[in-house]
Amino acid sequence: MNTTVKGKVFVLGDNVDTDQIIPAQHLVYNINDDKERRMYGKYALSSVPAAESGLPSGDIPFVQEGEFQSEFTIIIAGKNFGCGSSREHAPLALQTAGVKIVIAESFARIFYRNAVDGGFIIPVEASEELNKQLNTGDEVIIGLEDYILYNFANEEIYKLIPPGDILPVVEAGGLFNYAKKLKMI
Prior knowledge:
The protein is an alpha/beta fold. It is built from seven helices and seven strands; from the N terminus they run βαααβαβαββββαα. It has helices at about 20, 35-40, 50-55, 90-95, 110-115, 165-170, 175-180; strands at about 5-10, 70-75, 100-105, 120-125, 140-145, 150, 155-160. It has a seven-stranded mixed barrel with strand order 1-2-3-4-7-6-5. The two termini are about 20 Å apart.
């Protein structure tokens, strides 16, 4: 089990919905075909206008033109991340783009369950408005044993809310793989 996640953060605002995470026009790719599946990474967060995203300044793309993965492995967001539809393609798109963890003030329930049940990414709640204290591009390290986020840019430490026993489910690749691993099915 990995006990830390380290990388660059991509900072978003409140109410980022599933259509912003992966726009509906890009739901045409076969997730079982590796060549097509990577397109979900290419188009992840491609429709989040800078004015609505909470980005500190400029129009910073999540995935660079011509790439399929992002340089940002951690998303920091505000309230109600993943609201909107129940599409499980949203956490899949983030995972395909290289995201390991999303830290938000709160999550839409269906996004949270899809993220865990599919084994896509680790959703963790922040105990404060981290999207107003960190900047896109900051390098951080997150301890998954003590749920502490350390920001190298300002040398600040932030406490996160432990999500309970979801890590083994995410690491197993989802709920069904976890149940198989424990010989429940």
